[in-house]
Write a structure and sequence with these properties.
disordered N terminus, Killer Toxin P4, Chain A, five-stranded antiparallel beta sheet, signal, CRR_secretory_protein, about 260 residues, 11 strands, binds 2-acetamido-2-deoxy-beta-D-glucopyranose, alpha+beta, repeat, GNK2_sf, Gnk2-homologous domain-containing protein, six-stranded antiparallel beta sheet
């Protein structure tokens, strides 16, 4: 049911079957799903040796992130010249949900990219990335992919694109809004819904908390153009990268949306 356009097509293909199993008896919301989506071992950045400084740094970070992952924000990062790490949980996954996703992600990344210095893994509810350089605060244009429901929407494609564009704009505006308040931080996360020809369409955008609002918008715009053929005319699709993500479905998939039915 799910198809993909990405560098790691093969890896995704294997998981298409898992996704099919998951989605076959739904478009019903499954509240406990935290599907594995994709991962990437950044092979060109090399491997570390047992006992190396890099290993020590990585192990310490993994330990520290474990306690941080339970925080209210569902986000933590570490950035230095030779090493950076980001954990970003989905906006509705904080506290123990974020920590569970983190624990799953760390274990899977360890297994899937053993000894690689730089690696990224994506789950429904979190993203975890390690890198060999100071990469926080910047948009990552290199590591992105898109998955879409193979079921076509059919019908009036232009009308859909028009609605979709406004919907995406609305969500982006919401995500980067700065509360006129002393905190001056934007959520970099927004969920919403809109009707398309009588069907309810649910959407979500999120950027990692290390990038500024302007970069968040750029990241979302760049990827929605880059992946337009994956996103348009489908009964659900999503793109992900290291800095931002967007998803829409014709069923609710965020905890709050599910509760609201
Ligand atoms: C969803 O959550 C409800 C209550 O929180 C629970 O009773 C139900 O078993 C959960 N569904 C699944 C598929 O886990
Ligand atoms: C976009 O936002 C405007 C203003 O809040 C709203 O009237 C409109 O219905 C929204 N459209 C979509 C497609 O989300
Ligand atoms: C800022 O926002 C918070 C949360 O919405 C609210 O409780 C608080 O009163 C606001 N502060 C000001 C100065 O508006």
């Amino acid at each position: 049911m799910y198809s993909s356009s990405s560098a790691s097509k093969f890896v995704i293909l294997i998981h298409v079957f898992a996704m099919q199993l998951l989605h076959i008896n739904s478009e019903l919301p499954l509240n406990t799903t935290n599907a594995y989506l994709n991962h990437k071992c950044l092979v060109s950045k090399g491997k570390y040796k047992p006992g190396s400084e890099y290993e020590k740094q990585l192990k310490l970070t993994i330990k520290n992130f474990y306690s941080d992952s339970g925080n209210k924000e569902g986000f933590t990062l570490l950035g230095s010249d030779g090493f950076s790490a980001i954990l970003q949980c989905r906006g509705d996954s904080y506290g123990s949900k974020c920590r569970d996703c983190y624990a799953t992600a760390v274990a899977a990344l360890h297994r899937r990219c053993p000894w690689y210095k730089a690696k990224i893994i994506w789950y429904d509810q979190c993203l975890l990335s390690f890198d060999t350089k100071y990469s926080t605060g910047q948009i990552d244009y290199d590591n992105n992919f898109c998955m879409s429901n193979a079921k076509k929407l059919g019908g009036d494609k232009l009308a859909f694109i028009r609605t979709w564009n406004i919907f995406m704009d609305n969500l982006t505006t919401l995500a980067i809004r700065v509360d006129n308040n002393d905190t001056k931080t934007s959520p970099l996360y927004a969920v919403g819904e809109t009707k398309f020809k009588g069907d309810m369409m649910y959407g979500m955008v999120q950027c990692t908390k290390d990038i500024p609002e302007k970069a968040c918008e750029e990241c979302l715009v760049f990827n929605s153009i880059h992946f337009q053929f994956c996103l348009n005319d489908k009964r659900g699709a999503r793109f992900m990268c290291r800095s931002c993500t967007f998803r829409f479905e014709f069923y609710p998939f965020i905890a709050k949306q599910v509760r609201n039915i």
